[in-house]
Design goal:
single chain; 291 residues; alpha/beta; Rossmann fold; GMP Synthetase, Chain A, domain 3; 2 domains; three-stranded mixed beta sheet; 35% helix
Length: 291
């Protein structure tokens, strides 16, 4: 009998959810940087085998929203609690269990199986990890707690095994050759945004949105034009940099990753525009794909 279902990944920022998602799916679906709020959308990655299809869903890190974009991000996380067959709650050995008690309370009320994954165990020791496990057992008693290391792929096979045991019998929801629900343009924008997260400091990366205005593909090459939106004229100057060097570095690094991602020659044009206070505008958030 074939098994299939939706496995939703939730947790706070900086606990390695996106890295785990990519390891579980076996593809680079979510961007993973050292900065918080990397994931802004709910991203599906699909794991396929002959007898099973797991539809993983990575969500933005749970945080108290300060502007409308963060409200949208929290809505994505809350929605993941309503349609899961199995819930993966990801924490790590660094964060304290009492962070975001309101969201944890919602997880505790779940009727679907909850696997609580304590990530980055290579940064801890046996005694501290044992204490952490006991704290989480008190907070979410119904959860099965699994220590993991996403980067070292420790216990990843066991997670897949447990999910298979917990999923309902069902035909696949998606074509067996499909590994995500997102279009190619989405991954172009995410890869460019990842470079901005890596190369710029402070508020700049969080004030940026990337929109792909042209994506022309043939058998050997792809022509891409992308607009980087910022909220202030001063931010535009920082993104471009002196004599355009900063923007050139972002575009060069993004182009290399895109060529690996698509397996084709990439011609990438990048442009910077100001869209004042877009993070707090319902209209602009809707235009950028946040619902």
């Amino acid at each position: 009998m074939h098994k299939a279902g939706f496995v939703n990944i939730v947790g706070n920022p900086n606990v390695g959810k996106s890295t785990l998602m990519n390891v579980l799916v076996g593809e680079r679906v979510s961007i993973a940087t050292f900065k918080a709020q990397t994931t802004r959308h709910r991203i599906m990655g699909i794991y396929n085998s002959e007898e099973m299809q797991i539809v993983f869903s990575d969500t933005p890190g749970v945080l108290k929203p300060n502007y409308k974009l963060q409200e949208s991000m929290l809505n994505f996380s809350n929605s993941a609690l309503t349609d899961a067959d199995v819930l993966l709650y990801v924490t790590d050995v660094v964060e304290t269990p009492d962070k975001n008690n309101e969201f944890i309370d919602k997880v505790r009320k779940q009727t679907v199986p909850v696997l609580l994954l304590i990530n980055k165990i290579d940064l801890s020791n046996q005694d501290d990890l044992a204490k952490l496990v006991e704290e989480w057992k008190k907070l979410i008693p119904q959860a099965e707690i699994i220590p993991i290391s996403a980067t070292a792929k420790f216990n990843v096979d066991y997670i897949i095994k447990r999910i298979k045991e917990l999923l309902p019998d069902s035909p696949p929801y998606f074509d067996k050759n499909q590994w995500t629900d997102k279009p190619a343009r989405f991954f172009v924008a995410e890869i460019i945004r990842e470079k901005i997260l890596l190369y710029y400091d402070k508020e700049i990366p969080y004030s940026v949105e990337v929109v792909v205005e042209q994506f022309k593909e043939d058998t050997k090459k792809i022509q891409i034009n992308a607009v980087i939106y910022v909220e202030r004229d001063s931010q535009k100057g920082i993104i471009i940099g002196k004599q355009g060097k900063a923007l050139k570095k972002v575009a060069t690094e993004a182009r290399r990753d895109l060529e690996r991602f698509f397996g084709k020659t990439i011609f990438l044009g990048t442009y910077v525009k100001v869209d004042k206070d877009w993070r707090s505008s319902d209209k602009e958030l809707h235009n950028f794909g946040y619902r």
